[in-house]
Every structure is written in structure tokens, then in C-alpha cells.
Amino acid sequence: LTSDYYSSRIKDDQIGALFVGKDIQSKEFDTVVQLSSDSYLSKQHNPIASDDLIIIIGNLIDNALEAFKGSNIDNRRIDVRVIENDHIIKIGVSDNAGGIDKSVKERMFNRGVSTKQGENRGTGLHLVSEIVKLYSGEKSVQSSMHRTYIEITLKKVK
Question: What pairing do the DSSP bridges indicate for beta strands 88-95 and 31-35?
């Protein structure tokens, strides 16, 4: 059921597999990852590479999952939307894990910035930022006490 839901919307097998994997991983966090019903991604979305989309979507979902750690929030949700047209691919990820601290929000795409403990942290969103630059795209972060929404837009034309 799950893979059919993804494959009817996500025609790129690599991205489809990523969603199935994140769906399984999210159960360990007692969290629901939901791909919006209007999401669409074609099999070929040149010049945007599947690997770059995997880095973006994977990092945004991973960070949302991490945000739930140590919280007692019920109905944990991560909503993902992937929209493609002839000009752009837009990826939106929102969670209800609470907001991002203002001091972190301004620096979160810088290399080495992380709210997590441990070595070698703070590379994921920096990579996302580099990919956004590569495709002359845009990124935005909206955060409130209850929700965080990150939107990444990549342009297909240079």
C-alpha cells in the first residue's frame, strides 16, 4: 500500500525508495511521514540530479525526526510535498515538533551549525544550501512555537 501511494506520485524510483525507507524509519520515532496527495515528481527531471534531491529530502526529513527526540508531543507528523513543473522542483517539509530557536534559524544552513550532540555535525543543511545554489534556487524557513516549515525551490533552467 505504502509503496503504491509513493509510486503513483513519485516516478523517480530512487526518490520513491527514499520515501519508503523514511516511512519505515519514522515508525521508530512514533512519527507519521505523509507525502501530500498533490505531490508529483517525474522519472527524469533534468538537469536536477536524483542524488541532489535525495540529499535535500533526506536531510529535511531526518532533521524533522530529530526534532521530536526527547519531546512528549502526540500525533507527531512530518508533511512532505514535492511539486515539479517544467521550470522548478519545489520541496516543502513541515513538522509539528515545535519551532527552531531564532539564533539557530539564522545560521542553520552554515557548515558546522547543529543543535545535535556529537562529532561531524552540521553538514546536512550546509549541503542542502550548496545544492540550492547549484540550481539557482531559493530556500525559506518559517517557524512558530508549534511548527517548522522549510521550503526548497530548485530551478531546472540555469
Answer: unpaired
- Calculate the alpha carbon distances from 126 to 20, 108, 131, 157 in Å: 25, 8, 9, 22
Each residue's pLDDT tens digit, 69-85: 878 898 999 999 999 99
- Decide: 132 and 126 in contact? Cβ < 8 Å: no
Burial class (CB in 10 A: 0-12, 13-18, 19+), 22: buried
CA distances from 41 to 29, 44, 46, 57 (A): 27, 8, 11, 13
Surface-to-core class of residue 78, CB atoms within 10 Å of its CB (0-12 exposed, 13-18 middle, 19+ buried): buried
pLDDT confidence of residue 42: 97
Query: What is this structure's pTM?
Result: 0.92
Single out the residue of 9, 96, 17 nearest to residue 51, CA to CA. Answer: 17
The identity of residue 12, as a single letter, is: D
pLDDT in tens, 110-126: 887 666 655 556 688 99
Q: Give the number of C-alpha atoms closer than 13 A to the C-alpha of residue 73, restricted to the C-beta side.
A: 24
